[in-house]
Amino acid sequence: MKSREEEYKEIFIGEALEYYDALNRHISDLEKNPENDSLLAEIFRLLHNMKANAKAIGYIHISELSHKLETAFELIRNKKLAFADEAVTILFDGIDLLGELINNLDQEDYQAQDENIIRNLDIIVQTGESGNKPGDKAVEVAKGPKYLNSKNIQLSDLIYIQIKKLDHLLNLVGELIIDRDRIISISKELDHPDLTSVSSHLYRLTEDLQFSVMDARLVTIGSLFNKFPRIVRDIAVAEKKEIHLDITGQDIQIDRNILQIITDSLLHIMRNAISHGIEPAEVREAAGKPAVGNISLSAQSDRDMVQIKLSDDGKGIDLNDVRRGIVQKGYLPAEAANELRDSEVLSYIFEPGFSLAKQITEVSGRGVGLDVVKNAIDSIGGRIRIDSEKGKGTTFTLHLPTSIAVKGALLFEVDSSFYAIPLMHTDSVVALDKDELHEIGGLLVADIKNETITVISLNEFLTADEKTMNLGSKAKLQGVVQNIIIVTYNNRKLGLIVDKLFRQQDIVVKALNKPVDIIEIYGGVTLLGSGKVCLVLDVPALTRYFLTKK
To answer: What class does this enzyme belong to in the EC scheme (predicted)?
Structure first.
């Protein structure tokens, strides 16, 4: 497996060679049309980016050469140096040397014969800055080595590919996995040695293919995290606050599409942390805190998930304020709101239109709530959690899958039909006697691990007629022992009674076709190895349906 340094090096080389090719093309065009300001601007931009990228990754030789070339073209842009005569030759030599250095980054002992070229570049810069012409100092310009010729043209080992092409490729892999599981199931039924051998080989190949395609879509979280220092600075200035930002885990990798989807969500949470979380300096000092607010943004790998945390040391969330908001907005009566656990209270912050903002600022409090954040994270099969302590601060934790197309799921059976629940939303599986369930308020509840959890029979819910459905009746339950899957969403738990539990399995989720695509409780469909259709339950929709009735 490649190290991070090797990956960064490959990315830099691929991009730098693209810049090098573009520079050669633009300079050749500029020689034919030396007054073309747009060409000069593009050349300057490419050299400036090359300089910055090389310096950031530690290739000082390339950075310094790019800087000299950038300076020379800046003089040309400002009409202090003419792109003619010796200057053209020297600048072409400088670009050739740049390509030579890039192409030989893998050779540790490589030494370019660059003394004369560097000296010549210094001369034309000096003459341009002094107002002389290069021809005025012709004893001094020496010939440099020629690096570019018809014998040593090289192509980059890297290619850039549109993400939509990788999306299509991953979809094809998903289809292949479905067929693979079907073939493996058939081979087990037939028990033919040749077929068993081929299916085993097919399994290994598709596994390798799946992970290879998923690996090609990975980017480092740093590509998003590294944009936040400037963002935080701008928000802090607008809010008249001073913020210290600590970032860790930039090297963690995640699917590029997932990172794209959560970008706005993370920005929204950051704005809230600075605007509503971090107190003004005088308030912090009065409370015995440092005047500078602290925010940390971190990422870490957690099995098949990536965990992103954004924490602040601000005022925290007053749970009593939230309870009052729950009642005022009509979600629950006061008695029910007071009975909620702290984690359940915080979950209402994600309800549409719920806000504790006392005032509108430039960056927050305009009616765009955390429900938008929640919906974005739900759309990729992730989940979000809030932990907060009044006066101490707040932490948002995002649990994100590493891939959208392939998900780990728990398979089960209800009324002879197959269903799946994403593992992301599966808390635990328990077996309870029917006597341990209690009929309260038209629903069943159970005490599980010191928590009172609402429990429903999926058999009754999915198969009974709406007029005769009775989810609060134990009499309709089959058998003495009930298999219950505890699912979690938005800090709320719900128990689902199922007929049979099967196994955990990676599944490829496909969108439902009309007319069943409008049924909220179904998040998609997959095919099992047996060829059976398996509906994927939408846990957020289920929990919203039942737990908002409390």
So the answer is: transferase
Burial of 7 (0-12, 13-18, 19+ CB in 10 A): middle
- Tokens 């992730």 found at: 382
Q: Give pLDDT tens digits for 33-47.
A: 888 888 888 998 999
CA distance 221 to 398: 13
Residue whose C-alpha is closest to residue 456's, from 370, 530, 546: 546
Q: Where in the chain is the domain with CATH 2.40.50.180?
A: 406-547
Q: What's the average model confidence in pLDDT over 512-521?
A: 70
* Cβ pair 315, 279 in contact under 8 A: yes
DSSP 415-440: TTEEEEEEGGGEEEEEEEEGGG-EEE
Q: In this structure, what token pair is assigned to residue 506?
A: 């990676």
pLDDT at residue 302 tops 50: yes
- Name the superfamily (CATH) of residues 219-317+356-401: Histidine kinase-like ATPase, C-terminal domain (3.30.565.10)
How far is Cα 379 from Cα 475, in angstroms, rounded to an integer?
37
pLDDT at 366: 38
- The CATH number of the structural domain formed by 163-216 is 1.10.287.560
| Measured distance CA(85)–CA(134) in Å, rounded | 8
Which has more confidence, 127 or 328?
A: 328
The DSSP bridge partners found for residue 534 are 418, 526
CATH 1.20.120.160 residue ranges for the chain: 4-137
- Name the segment(s) of the chain with CATH classification 1.10.287.560: 163-216
Average pLDDT of span 17-41 = 87
Average pLDDT over residues 141-170: 65
Task: Give the separation between CA 305 and CA 401, rounded to whole angstroms.
Answer: 5
Which CATH architecture group holds 406-547? Beta Barrel (2.40)
**Residue 266 one-letter amino acid:** L
The pLDDT tens digits of the residues spanning 435-473 come to 898 888 788 888 888 888 889 888 888 887 777 777 778
Task: Write down how long the chain is.
Answer: 550
Do 81 and 75 touch, CB atoms closer than 8 A? yes
How far apart are the C-alpha atoms of 9 and 57, rounded to whole Å?
A: 8
Where are the extended beta strands (E) located within 84-170?
Answer: none
User: Is 0.90 surpassed by the pTM of this model?
Assistant: no
How many angstroms separate the Cα of 138 from the Cα of each of 169, 226, 449? 58, 47, 87
Local structure of residue 474 (DSSP, 8 states): G
Kindly tell me the number of DSSP H helices and DSSP E strands found in the chain.
Answer: 17, 18
- Per-residue pLDDT tens over the stretch 418-430: 999 988 888 889 9
Which segments of 220-357 does DSSP mark as H helices, in order? 222-225, 228-239, 256-272, 281-286, 319-328, 334-339, 342-347
**Between vectors from CA 459 to CA 454 and to CA 463, what angle results, nearest 5°?**
125
The pLDDT mean for the chain works out to 82
Which residues lie closer than 8 Å to 186 by C-beta, 6 or more apart?
195
CATH topology of domain 4-137: Four Helix Bundle (Hemerythrin (Met), subunit A) (1.20.120)
Location of each CATH 3.30.565.10 domain in the chain: 219-317+356-401
